[in-house]
Amino acid sequence: MSVSVAGPSVTLTLANLDRSHGDVVVFEARAEGVDLLASMWVETLYGDAIDSFAAGLARDFRGWDGTRTWKSFRGELELRATHTGRVVELAWTLHHPGPAWESPGFWDCTVRTFVTPGEELRRFSADVAEFLVS
Q1: In a 3-state reduction of DSSP, which class is residue 75?
Q2: The sheet that has 24-33: what strands, in order across it?
């Protein structure tokens, strides 16, 4: 099972879920597009409630003020959601820390994907929940 969300010329995919580390759930976040391939292994504690975050977006499909943010506990993946009225913009940032001696980090990659409020947002939320239990 994987979750894929498309944006203009880019796709963000969550895949390769690994529950073999006890409380730590690991998955791959991969951004792919024209001249782009960025991939990170994301460590979470039981998913760090990304499913609850997505469910909250779906519950409030009519809109919210400002930007809502979710981060993995080690910070490898950040998801910011903004409701524009017509679409929900999902800004996914992959943070690769690089070697400990390099600061502020080796690289960051942010891609934007879009889902329409309502059924498509509800489907995204359900896919995230299903992904975490697969």
Answers
A1: coil
A2: 3-7, 10-21, 24-33, 36-45
Tens digit of each residue's pLDDT (9 = 90 or more) over 48-95: 999 999 999 999 999 999 999 999 998 999 999 999 999 999 999 999
Cβ atoms of 1 and 134 within 8 Å: the answer is yes
Query: Please, what is the angle between helix 50-59 and helix 119-133, to 10°?
Result: 160
**Contact between residue 124 and residue 5 where contact means Cβ atoms under 8 Å apart:** yes
The CB-based long-range contact list for 44-49 (8 Å cut-off, 24+ gap) reads: 44/72, 44/73, 45/73, 47/132, 48/72, 48/73
Q: What is the mean pLDDT of residues 91-106?
A: 76
Query: Do the Cβ atoms of 63 and 50 come closer than 8 Å?
Result: no
Q: What is the mean pLDDT of residues 16-30?
A: 92
Q: Give the integer Cα–Cα distance in Å for 27 and 88.
A: 24
Q: Where do the domains of the chain lie, and which CATH numbers do they carry?
A: 3-133 (2.30.31)
pTM for the complete prediction? 0.90
